[in-house]
Amino acid sequence: MKKDTQAENLLEAAAGFVPTLRERAGEIEKNRSLPQDIADAFAAAGFYSLMVPESLGGYEIDPLTYLKLVRTVAMGDASAAWCVMIGATTALSSAYMPKADAEQIFGKGQRTITAGVFAPTGKAVPEGDGFRVSGRWQWGSGSPNAAWVSGGCFVMRDGKPEMSDTGVPISRMMLVPKSDVTLLDTWDVSGLCGTGSTDFEMKDVYVPASRAVAFGYDKPMERPLYLFPIFALLASGISSVALGTARAAIDELVGFASAKTPQGTLKPLASRPDTQMGVSKAEALVRSATAFMDDAVGAAWDAAQKGDEIPVVLRRDMRLSMAHATTAAAEAVDIVYGLGGGTSVYRKSPLQRQFRDVHVATQHMMVAKGVLEQAGRLFLGLETDTRLF
């Protein structure tokens, strides 16, 4: 199947899920994780295999299609889109693993659901041909639905972290069957409630070295997608969830603005100048942020397709666009939530959930204020740690 047709089919499938996700949004939130039947349907549609190599039966999709797909799913439900994003990015480990292990977990047409946490809050001690792993991780999004779960670890040798040639600790993602993981019931939060982002633990788990991936240190397949900075793919997914949520919030307000007459007024909400200006501003925020991010990602993808290492200037622009997009999306939701008045606060209104969801997305470190500081340092020509860019 040609790439263009494949991308169109995936985006069409994503759009097809939107009505069902809107109908079941309350259930997803109450469940505090994605209902398994929805996760399985996403897996069958290939959403968790977006970044699995074609040689393993995955889609190895281009980043721009990935962004559009996540934004589309988020128009149905932000938590569902978040789980797609986490599953797709953690499955990047398939491009770093030895062929035999990658085929066992991801190959032969399997639509494996993965989850994991990049933060290296675990410890791995070398043992035989692998590692003995223990640790606890926060923010295990999608882990209740996953068959395989990974957690970042520092490899400890003689009580000290293993260091790279550049003098920084090497973090490895330890991929294990979910049966080796204990999920902890900690996910009681204000927004993105349905992501199942609970803490999890591994205690004295043996992990073969072939399933211990060091992103940014180990060499992946020499394919354009795997030249792309993994943290940019992660950050772009977060900002895409936020942008899709903002688009849904604007559409929700527009949908009832002509029918609602605010208390104490004679004109419908849509006839009020402040509503008209607010909707315009929200539209401008979302469209301009989307255009900036798509442009930055597109430029980096062009470089990757040529086989070039993506330079810092393009990585800077991508990460800046993603942090900006998340902030702009939250501002747009704030505007329409305020314009909705009393309607916005009722549980039956999607606006209250979209308001909470988008503000949880802004708290992720990949799109937080620190990214703006680092980008600013690069614009000013100052020495900057770009390991997460």
| Rg, Å, rounded | 21 Å
The sequence of SSEs as H and E is HHHHHHEEEEEEEEHHHHHH
Query: How many DSSP H or I helices?
Result: 12
Distance between the terminal alpha carbons, to the nearest Å? 33 Å
CATH architecture of the largest domain: Up-down Bundle
Poorly predicted runs = none
- Find the CATH topology of the largest domain: Butyryl-CoA Dehydrogenase, subunit A, domain 3
Write the CATH homologous superfamily of the largest domain: Butyryl-CoA Dehydrogenase, subunit A, domain 3
Textual characterization of the structure:
Helices cover 49% and strands 15% of the residues. It has 389 residues and is an alpha+beta fold. Strands 1, 2, 3, 4, 5, 6, 7 and 8 form an eight-stranded mixed beta sheet that branches. A hairpin with a 2-residue loop joins strand 3 and strand 4. The two termini are 33 Å apart.
Tell me briefly what this model is:
The protein has 389 residues and is α+β, with helices and mostly antiparallel strands.
Keywords for this entry:
389 residues, alpha+beta, Butyryl-Coa Dehydrogenase, subunit A, domain 1, Butyryl-CoA Dehydrogenase, subunit A, domain 2, Butyryl-CoA Dehydrogenase, subunit A, domain 3, 8-stranded mixed sheet, 15% strand
Task: Show the helix and strand layout.
Elements: H1 3-23, H2 25-31, H3 36-45, H4 63-76, H5 78-90, H6 99-106, E1 114-127, E2 130-140, E3 148-157, E4 160-161, E5 171-177, E6 182-183, E7 198-208, E8 212-213, H7 224-227, H8 230-257, H9 273-305, H10 312-339, H11 350-361, H12 369-379
Parallel strand pairs: 1-3
Antiparallel strand pairs: 1-2, 2-7, 3-4, 3-5, 5-8, 6-7
Helix pairs in contact: 1-4, 4-5, 4-8, 5-8, 8-9, 8-10, 8-11, 9-10, 10-11, 10-12
